[in-house]
């Protein structure tokens, strides 16, 4: 049994090594401020969609460190081993309610066939979709890979109370959107490969949109486009009903 586990671990390591090394080299290069300035300047010039948060790192934050590499490895591993796949059933993981600390399931937040889109932007589409933010482990804990760009300095959660307390701050960032927290087993983070952050749309218990790994793959514009298309398809089917 342990041999099987060791072999599995070795395969995972081999599969992750190229992307991990690429990220490590990128981080090392970005620690040269002249390179960092140039890369982020070019990214900003390329623009992208206005609703997408721009990728930027303050000059004072070192990227290449033991803590950052550990975090990157952790993120790649969760992404590689996640159960959530586009078109497949959505993992119904445990989450904890912020108000009363009741344990529930992620799909409890889905209402019928209405799409459940994780995280904000959904306000505009509030009539056709619901949303929920699942607060997971900190990507930049103050006792780990620290970042002065992080909106709050929060230490690693040692217990559920720590996590719930930190999530109260998170709630201020997303007014009007229900916030739940991942269990201390981190089951949502693992099943959805959510670290550092990630967007999903679930519908009818299935994953109908899976965003890329954050921060670089975190595209609110993709979520918005999906919902725009969904709205158009609803309008069309409504028209059809009228024609009939
Ligand atoms: C879940 O994440 C926290 C960090 O926020 C960590 O302290 C804890 O050990 C993790 N739990 C498991 C089961 O890995």
Automatic annotation (TrEMBL):
Entry keywords, A to Z: Membrane, Oxidoreductase, Selenocysteine, Thyroid hormones biosynthesis, Transmembrane, Transmembrane helix
GO biological process: hormone biosynthetic process; thyroid hormone metabolic process
Gene3D superfamilies from the UniProt entry: Glutaredoxin
Entry keyword Iron: no
GO molecular function term, any single one: thyroxine 5'-deiodinase activity
InterPro entries per record: Iodothyronine_deiodinase (IPR000643)
Bilayer-crossing regions: 6-35
Family: Belongs to the iodothyronine deiodinase family.
Chain's role: Responsible for the deiodination of T4 (3,5,3',5'-tetraiodothyronine).
Protein name: Iodothyronine deiodinase
């Amino acid at each position: 049994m342990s041999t099987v586990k060791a072999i599995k671990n070795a395969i995972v390591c081999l599969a992750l090594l190229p992307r991990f090394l690429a990220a490590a080299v990128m981080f090392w290069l970005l620690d040269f401020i002249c390179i960092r300035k140039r890369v982020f300047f070019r990214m900003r010039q390329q623009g992208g969609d206005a609703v997408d948060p721009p990728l930027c790192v303050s000059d004072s934050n070192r990227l290449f460190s033991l803590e950052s590499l550990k975090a990157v490895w952790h993120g790649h591993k969760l992404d590689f081993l996640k159960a959530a796949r586009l078109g497949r059933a959505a993992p119904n993981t445990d989450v904890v309610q912020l108000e009363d600390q009741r344990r529930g399931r992620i799909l409890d937040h889905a209402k019928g066939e209405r799409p459940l889109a994780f995280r904000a932007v959904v306000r505009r589409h509030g009539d056709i979709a619901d949303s929920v933010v699942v607060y997971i482990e900190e990507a930049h804990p103050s006792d780990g890979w620290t970042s002065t760009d992080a909106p709050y300095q929060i230490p690693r959660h040692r217990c559920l109370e720590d996590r719930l307390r930190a999530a109260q701050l998170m709630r201020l960032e997303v007014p009007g959107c229900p916030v739940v927290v991942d269990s201390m087993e981190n089951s949502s983070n693992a099943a959805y490969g959510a670290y550092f952050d990630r967007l999903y749309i679930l519908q009818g218990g299935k994953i109908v949109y899976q965003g890329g790994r954050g921060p670089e793959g975190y595209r609110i514009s993709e979520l918005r486009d999906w919902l725009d298309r969904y709205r158009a398809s609803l309008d069309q089917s409504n028209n059809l009903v009228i024609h009939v």
